[in-house]
Write a structure and sequence with these properties.
The chain is built from 23 helices and 2 strands. With about 525 residues, it is mainly alpha-helical. The radius of gyration is 26 Å and the shape is globular. Keywords: Glycoprotein, Membrane, Symport, Transmembrane, Transmembrane helix, Transport. InterPro entries: DAACS, Na-dicarboxylate_symporter, Na-dicarboxylate_symporter_CS, Na:dicarbo_symporter_sf.
Length: about 525
Amino acid sequence: MGPGDRGPKTTEDRSAPVDPTGVKKWFIDNKLLVITLAGVLAGIAVGFGLRPYHLGPDALIVISYPGELFMRLLKLMILPLIIASLIAGSASLNAKMSGKIAVRTLLYFILTSMFNAFLGIILAVIIHPGKPELREDSTAIVENKRDHKILDSLLDIGRNIFPDNIVQAAFQQAHTVYTEPKTLFSNASASNDSVPLVLVREIHYRSGTNTLGLVFFCLVFGSLLGTLGQKGKVVIDFFQAIFEVIMKMVTGVMWFTPFGVSSVIAGKILGVSNVGQVMSQLAWFIATVTVGVFLYQLIVMQLIYFFFLRRNPYKFYWGLSQAMLTASATASTAAALPVTFRAMEGPLRIDPRITRFVLPIGCNINMDGTALFLAVASLFICQMNSMHLGFAQLATIFLTCTAASVSSASVPSAAMVLLLVVLAAVDAPTHDVSLLFAVDWLVDRIRTTNNMLGDCYAAAVVERMSKNELMASDAASMEPSTLPNGLPTSNTEVEIGIVTPGKKSIVSNDAIIDMHLHNETNRI
């Protein structure tokens, strides 16, 4: 046997397990994603498998009950998570940096919403999903007893951004309604059916968290808190601790995701009557929205990410799989926010100062999928009623969809209410909206993934655009003196460049910049 020859293989060597593809390691690293996907498939199988038995209302409630509890657990954490993340995040940035990041974030959100509205119009014109014969199959009618104006929606945004009671904003939001004028007496003889009834505009409050008002208050509060130095350190640490506790709660809740998702999907499938007939009638509408959503997700978003970050965008996309499944199952960007935070600050390693600033804002005003849906749905109903739309009307739909998507709530089926506003802007009939309610349970889940992904990609892009400011802030915070602003800490301090409050640093400015650049090269 020559010196270069290997000895005979022993039994131990031959029996050693070989896993060249790393499949086992992949399953271990992504076990939560795998079982969540299994839950989705199980929900679909159970839903369609039990449909032939025509289960009663009590059985449907029992099947949907685990999903209801899962949704309630997620929603339970939304309010403290938004408040804690925004105050801790904005307090870690100086006022000038907060202003720059806010401008970049809002500009990104507006431009992407405009693009999605434009994409929806183009696809609806090319595919032409609306057919006049569909109106004959629609029996449900939604009565339109009040006016719907885009002006009211825009004014309601301002009223909610500046609430007059911050406590009330935690559970109520302002909205405009039209009511019949109240009279002290009725005069039947004086009534005249030919005289149109003039409705009175009133400001009412409805149940639901006014997240726009809370976001504004927390941003201002946190920015000013960061200027207090050591006086504000205790308060910053308090909100940082709240955020850390909520994220630990999220980690525990995530293991219930497969059961909750399976229950939600099965309940929705069982609760829809005549699924086959509805799908066949609205197949082209569903296809148009789906093509637009995935065209934007798989191509446009990835190009934006690659243009700004010069990295493989699909690795980033894959890292958001768990958050996408949660957003799709719950049909709510807000409900998926805790999971989104976990993915962005964990495996994807986006700077917490950016995620805690961008994600809560995007959760409320960045509705890319909603803008696309509103454009397609508006043209679908116009085509169904044989309406010819000129350039001026298409431009009106484009602007109205963009503005309406900003005022959309991050809750299931909120876009259906805004669709009435868009249709009223071009004098299109609104009673045909009832036809879309039959498939909104499905389309809502498709477009919600666009909304959630838009927030995440915005955070990645804004972080890259704000790299110089973040590095300067890191360098300033690492000066050999006690930190004045008490920056929030994290479980991975070195990786994200954040220093524990109150500690003295012996690292030079050049060293922290080198460390920041080293982390940039090692990230996905």
